[in-house]
Design goal:
There is one protein chain. The chain is an alpha+beta fold. It has 22 helices and five strands. Strands 1, 2, 3, 4 and 5 form a five-stranded antiparallel β-sheet that branches. Strand 3 and strand 4 form a beta hairpin. Helix 1 packs parallel to helix 5 and helix 8 runs antiparallel to helix 14.
Length: 511
């Protein structure tokens, strides 16, 4: 079957990418606002528990992605690629919009987190059907010698979806009021809903574009010849040879790719905000700049994989991640270590605010002193002291440093360190769509490639922020202990992939 012209393939990529980008935007808005959502939908008596609950809800969307892959993968192999990922787009957009409408915990109690969880599960199911459809659709239009290059454009949509979500959040936050403190308060109260609600407009545009798309020519040919799979699930997982390829794809590629992806972007943001205590705006603009600089490399590595094969590019990305994560995150902590900085320079006091709160014991009060300091370099921070006063005796409490505003050199050092991590992401993620497509025959491709992809990304990768954060709350003496999870998973995948994955490019995959 003849391939589409260059103009035709770019139309296919554009139509597929817009919808996929919007689905990723919808999916990642939740993670980008994890701290705010924790205060809205969970009891605020224990902020750490609320954040862990939010991250667990975030992870739940990933855990159900393999089920979405089975449901929608089967539909995609039975009725076609086009109508299946139209359905996933509607489900994703509707669920995201609905999250923006849910009343807070203070209004409806535990019904709030339950509703959020249910909608998050719907989002996960929808995304489980989206990626496999989009990647398969583009690959089945692409010529064999440029399959990695063309599918790598779909790979950029996940990172760009995160980029758009961060951009919309910052734009919304700064447009609510000219006064920064008022703007922050409004955003935390109700403004956070806007990024969820506006997504419905993006979804409508994407649906319109996708309605104009034609079915994949390879699937259309199979259907016209009566060769469509009768039972894609049985053929994908009931046949020993194909099941072997599914397991190899999972444990030799997507498992490691998943943890590298979510460490380099989501855990990185969580670490900067919750461990390094960098302020809201900078923790997000750092990631935005890193994404801007790194995103072109998805296409670079996708295209390069057409020339030298997919395997060694992906394995090299995992290897670099395994040996680089702890030094990178250690440097992030060192750069924001306020006591170390104070030992070499005394900061100037900008403002002091004291607040007294009564405790259940009527003779005891809690005095919270928030002092804003700045260094000559331009870096500033808030020191929070919580002292207990009982019978005119003061007991010093916990001392914390928050809302750190980085000076210019430190800020760009952070951008570089996150860029390096996203660069690893481009290595493992850029070639993987073409790699997965080439493993499986056309009539069961949607089902076969979707399951290992979404287990690797959804379960192993999606759980990274939650497991890493949980580990740091259990083993408080080591703030870097959470990194052992992605390092271990990536290392196992690296060994299996190196030993058993073939570097051969299959030119006949579209026959």
């Amino acid at each position: 079957m003849s391939q589409p012209t260059n103009k035709g393939i770019w139309k296919v990529i554009g139509a597929s990418s817009v919808g996929t980008l919007i689905e990723w935007y919808d999916f990642y808005i939740f993670g980008s606002l994890a701290t705010v959502i924790a205060s809205q939908f969970f009891p605020n008596t224990n902020p750490t528990a609320a954040l862990l609950s939010t991250l667990a809800t975030f992870a739940a969307g990933f855990i159900v992605r393999p089920f979405g892959a089975l449901v929608f993968g089967r539909l995609g192999d039975l009725i076609g690629r086009k109508y299946t990922f139209l359905l996933t787009l509607v489900l994703m957009g509707g669920s995201t919009f609905a999250i923006g409408l849910i009343p807070s915990y203070e209004t409806i109690g535990f019904a709030a987190p339950i509703l959020v969880l249910l909608l998050r599960l719907l989002q996960g199911l929808a995304l489980g059907g989206e990626y496999g459809g989009a990647a398969t659709y583009v690959a089945e239009h692409a010529p064999a010698n440029k399959r990695g290059y063309f599918t790598s454009w779909i790979q950029t949509t996940a990172t760009l979806g995160l980029f758009v979500s961060l951009g919309v959040i910052l734009l919304t936050r700064h447009s609510l009021d000219s006064d920064q403190e008022v703007s922050i308060r409004k955003f935390n109260d109700w403004g956070w809903r806007i990024p969820f609600l506006v997504s419905i407009l993006l979804v409508v545009v994407s649906i319109y574009i996708r309605l104009k798309m034609n079915e994949s020519p390879l699937f259309a040919k199979l259907k016209s010849e009566g060769k469509v799979s009768v039972n894609p699930l049985k053929e994908s997982f009931g046949h020993k040879t194909n099941l072997k390829m599914v397991l190899l794809a999972l444990f030799g590629a997507t498992m490691g790719q998943g943890v590298v992806w979510y460490t380099g972007q989501f855990y990185a943001q969580s670490f900067i905000e919750n461990v390094c205590k960098v302020d809201f705006d900078q923790s997000r603009t750092i990631l935005i700049w890193a994404i801007v600089f790194a995103t072109p490399f998805f296409v670079v590595f996708g295209s390069w994989s057409d020339k030298i094969g997919r395997k060694w590019i992906m394995m090299a990305g995992m290897l670099l991640a395994v040996f680089s994560y702890r030094p990178i995150y250690k440097e992030l902590m060192t750069a924001t270590n306020i006591p170390n900085r104070i030992s070499s320079e005394t900061p100037a006091v900008a403002s002091v605010n004291r607040e007294t709160r009564p405790l259940p014991d009527v003779s005891t009060t809690l005095q919270i002193t928030s002092s804003r300091y700045s260094f000559s370099t331009g870096m500033s921070f808030t020191e929070v002291k919580s002292d207990t006063l009982r019978n005119n005796i003061t007991t010093p409490g916990k001392l914390t440093y928050t809302e750190k505003k980085l000076d210019n050199p430190t800020y760009w050092k952070f951008v570089l360190l996150i860029f390096i991590q996203v660069f690893f992401v481009t290595m493992v993620y850029g070639p993987i769509a073409a790699f997965l497509v080439e493993l499986f025959p056309t009539k069961i491709r949607y089902t076969s490639m979707s399951l290992p992809y979404h287990i690797g990304n959804g379960v192993f990768g999606g759980l990274t922020p939650f497991i890493a954060t949980l580990l740091t709350t259990i083993y408080t003496q080591d703030a870097l202990v959470g990194l052992w999870y992605p390092i271990l998973i990536a290392a196992i995948c690296l060994v299996i992939g190196t030993l058993y994955i073939s570097n051969k490019i299959d030119p006949n995959v579209n026959d």
